[in-house]
Amino acid sequence: MKRLVVLGGGESGVGTALLGKAKGYEVFVSDKGKIKPKYQDVLENNEIDWEDEKHTESKILNADLVMKSPGIPPKVDLVQRLIAANIPVISEIEFASKYTDATIVGITGSNGKTTTASLTYHILKQQLSVGLGGNIGTSFAKQVLEDDFENYVLEISSFQLDDCKDFKPHIAVITNITPDHLDRYDYKFENYIASKFRIAMNQDSNDYLIYDGDDPVISNWLELHPIQSTLLPFSLVQTFENGAFLENENIKITIDNNQIIMPTKDLALEGKHNIKNAMAASTVAHLLKIRKQTIRESLENFHGVEHRLEHVLKINKVQYINDSKATNVNATYYALESMEAPTVWIVGGQDKGNDYTELFPFVNEKVKAIICLGVDNQKLLENFSSMVDIIVETQYMSEAVKIAYKIAKSGDNVLLSPACASFDLFENYEDRGRQFKDAVRNL
To answer: What is the distance between the alpha carbons of residues 158 and 143, in angstroms, rounded to a whole number?
Structure first.
């Protein structure tokens, strides 16, 4: 009996353990932190051996196969020892994809991947049997075991791709590539780019890569590293024979002379970046033969994902906006770009090697005050102190929101868009976003 060791007892880990057991593996789950009670119950009920708050090496280094949570860096000693022992270390995506013949849509990118994945799923589910998983929602492995959908939309992070070897989505989407997570990639942008492109590494000419044709990072990489799949770019400024582009406020999508046209004026989501997300999702839907009318209606009634430019409340004519999901500079760029009123900006957290230069024009033009919410705000203070009259520091969300409430005047926005990871003060970006919303509701 082959031994599967799962490192990390969260959603993807427990899902992998269940699928592994069903496929005849002897399974052991190990988590250095605490496994949540709901996941402990699942493991107990399925008689799967587990431990938490430690890694017992003797029970791990005898594995035939290891699935590691994407949150565990490859450089940690235990992972290095597994690699040295020639024990394959893979991601949930890699493991689960071997047990399904479904059509897989894999979506990656520095920003927009959650919105694009959620929107793609929202369109496809009107007509197809489809599951949503990966870096979002229910574990992909668990869905393969329990639901056996004919199609999957997977949001996939670079960390998950790093542990893929044979994974081959029929349709791959790269929304964009901007510097992020550089602390995991030896502070080399090209390592991170290569990681994203792993989504297409096993594709052949029957597969598709949908990508932002306006993104120079993607275009340059494709020129130097040609891939086998059929390329379908999308753009706001160029036109393509095959792909999606904007013409007179309409999205036009052409694939092999088959064209569909979508008006942008009725899109539920605002902002230029969301036109691109809509282009990517509609191109997938068009490839999978979804009716034009269905695509159009879905784009009109999809209202976005939690913690992404989410309008929380208006208090005294001040709009409070939760963009906690903006964990890198480029995401915050989109947020600030879409602000139409003077903005009190709550920013900060765990810096991942950020360069804030691209935000300067927006900060000068739109931001009236900055509230730094992090353990170490030195870099923010150095970058922005000279640009605004008010810049303050706090380590409590409730205090950040109270300060914002005092500063903001009628007609202003208060925007939480941190541009950083949340792990210095919060459990994750969802926890940060929920605390923001609770603090706003308590004003």
So the answer is: 21
